[in-house]
Amino acid sequence: MRIDSAGWTHVGRRSHNEDAWIARGDLGLFVVADGLGGYEGGEVASRCVVDAFSGFCERLARDPEATWPHRPRPGHSREEELLRNCTVLAQRAVLSRRVGQLREMGSTVVALALGSRRAAVAHVGDSRLYRLRDGQLEALTRDHSVLEEMRESGVETPARGESPYGHLITRALGTENAEPTVRPLEVREGDVYLLCSDGLYEPLGPERLAAGLGQGHSAGVAEALVQEAYAAGGRDNITAIVVGVGTR
Question: Following DSSP, what letter does each residue of 33-49 receive, concatenated?
Answer without folding.
Answer: EEEPTTSTTHHHHHHHH
